Amino acid sequence: MALAVKRSISEINTLPEPATIVPQITTHRLYKRIRRNACKSSGTLTSILSYVNMLEDASSNDALQILLKITDSMHFDESEFPDAIRKLVEHFQREPESAVRVKILSLFADLATETGIDGQQLIDEVIKLLKVEQSAKVISQGLIVLEKIGKSFTPSVAYINQMVFFAKVKLFSPSHNVQRHAILLLGVFVLVSDAEKESLELIGKYTDSPDARVRAQAFRSMLTLGERGVQLPPSLYPRACASLTDDYECVRREALNMVFELGVRHPEEMIKVQDSEQEVRLIDDAFGKVCSAICDLSMNIRTLAAELLGGMTMVSDEFLHQTLDKKLMSNMRKKRSLHERSAAHFASGEWSSGKKWADDAPKEVISADSVSLMASGACGALVQGLEDEFLEVRTASVNSMCKLALKNPLFAVTSLDFLVDMFNDEIEEVRLRAIYSLTAISRHIILREDQLETMLSSLEDYSVEVREGLHLMLGACKVSTKACLTLVVQKVLDVLLKYPEDRLSTFGCMQRVGQKHPEICMSITPQLLLDHPFFDSAERDVEDPAYVCVLIMLFNAAQHLPAMLSLFPETTIKHYAYLRDTMPNFVPRLAVGGDTKELNLIGSTGSRQFLETAPTPPQARQALLKAAQDDLDRLAEIDPAFSGTANFTSVFFGAQLQMEQLQLAATGHSIKAPIKECLLQLIKKCLMLQNLFSNLTIDDQLLVKQMCLRASALNLVLIVKDRSQSALGPCQLLLHIASDASSFLQENTPLIADTFTSAILTKLASVGDPKPGRVYREILPIVQTAAPVVIPQINTNIKMCKARIIEPTENSYSAENVIKVTAGLIAAVPFVAELENLQQSQRQDLRLKVKYPDQNVHIIVPRKRDLKKVMTEQGESESQWRLRTKVLLSHGVWTEASTVEITICLSVKPNNELELCKPVKVHFAPKPVKRGL
Known about the structure:
One of its GO terms (biological process) is snRNA processing. By secondary structure, this protein is an alpha+beta fold. The chain has 39 helices and 16 strands. Strand 14 (about 900-910) and strand 15 (about 910-915) form a beta hairpin.
């Protein structure tokens, strides 16, 4: 299929056939016609007037049922909408039952959000109906409907003002529900300029409403205005603080959000402390108010307060450190020196005679609470959150402590002991949060020996995620002394003996420990290698995981401190060469053996130049495309930086080759490969282009859509020619892909479709009844005379979704280590895989594919909790995921052990799975049941 890319102005001037470009108005009409024809062919297009006419003689109950049927089927002829709306309005005016009127208004909102009805007409009709309405229930529903209709399109300023004026009128309604929805409408639609003048103050008055729902909605609407760009003044702060003690949780929640928002927006604003002349910064006072909310009776409020603390990073240090101390520091009041107090006492002229008890007491008793610059609830607030009975509060407190520590190194050092204590929490999620938080702030801290003992005691946790998190944390942190490093190494090696499946995680931990402590590693090198200064020690087993861990740490330390190489015995140097070849990702290149040059793949291989100078296909087109495809596959293996782009171009060339062969078959020529097999391969490559690649530009997306359109057209032509199966499904698929391509061109007007796409879309638009035979006759000449597909422009940002199976390996369940189980029972095989560039929307499509020797294939859906993002020292990885689950194998009796293939794939369509990696083979042997005597 001929593909088009976005070209420069100079290239556009050289286009040979500008007449083949589909005009935008044609594309818009084409999309409408294809969609309508597809609805007619599937039988889903119905008449809304046929339902509405039934309302004339129906009772209230029958009318409600009819309206429910209209809501269930939302595919109507758009030309009937004006008459249907008019009749619905007439029925609304004569309907005595309020529930039916509510349903009619709700139907207006559904039509606005799910169809192409005119929203401005609906706004006019709804407001006219509500002006004479008396039922508070119906008016409340009408305000909700106005909000939904307004969000379904972009109304003009006149309609916005019309809705805002109507909402202001309804603010004076005696119904609290009407007031609440009117305030909601104002917060969403009032103009920013009007809100700063009067609307914000008008909404603020309802924070004193007698109804808690109205008070909460008033704060929520003001926050919505703030998100829309309205400047929230500091004068709202006292009103929000007063609502923090409200009896209702919903009000306290919104008031707490308002206090946080004002503190972040106006941090340097000075306000007076209650019952005192002292002034503090607004962010400091707001921080104290949020800290006080951690003692709230509601768990939700405590959780919210703990979450909000992490965003108040501009708070003063004294207030911040007070959250870790439960004793108030000197009541946070101003102290005078002894000399100042003596001078003031002497100036007063009052001396104690000693004859009267307490006659020297101060004249004015000062209450500590009255002069406190910080609310008492701020004292130890984070400690209170860490000790809360609910895990949500503890988790939020740990996250906030981490965010605050990242901005304040001194606070990071102070909070270290508290985070270490959370390693002993009974909930795994809290322990993981504490471990990841300590990893994030590792650059600000140095661990002591007493802290290490608590951390290392958690290494024997039953949870593999906790152990891997601790490995990550130990590799990110620095220790203070030689004894600390020895303690870390010994404990890690001891735990490795207990959990040998943590081998790779332990290797990564020791690699980072060596990189961060080269000097300390040098001091304990003879001790770790058991190297005697006078006698030769026995050569150790290089396959021993503990010994490998030690070597990985020392080799990585030697990379930063080359003087360590002189301390290595001869056997260690030999082991270096072996480990460098077997695990290059853990062992760095050292100046050993005279070869010190390291091959830098990125930027030195000319990968980008190769991609950009891919040959334009001349007469020997297929041979060159095949050679380029092989070169691109090899490039993807040797240069990770361009692997996504190389794979995308290789798959594109492969689809192009299949398409040219099938085009020969469509013209009546014979081809070597079976047509059905070629069609399956072409469809698979198109699915790969659609689902496995990310970071595509709109030009790349157009190329993929045009390739899929050509493939679907070829599919229909060849199936009709074959006459062995029904062509209805391929015809519907072609219509669907054409509809998608035309709407994409409509949304991206600068893009230009190629001649093939323009011709196909134009022909489909002219087909009145899209039956397979009619569509086949129309598109056959276009498919047979289609020009070759152009080569896509190179986009080096393309990423490909792929997987790597870590466990099981080919050696873990080899012929010597067979999985034996009684036939009919289940064997659970641990499965661990890492996935790269998996999109968030593709998580639910992930599958495990198990293929048995008898060609039976089982598709397994992994649990959602088994797939998690990979944690790094910088936090959660954006593109890397880890799947940790168990694959269940079961079969009948086999005479001997055979291999079972396990792989990971994406289920993009029913019975269409795209494999993300090569399958791993495990030996499986179901044995017959042993009969007892």
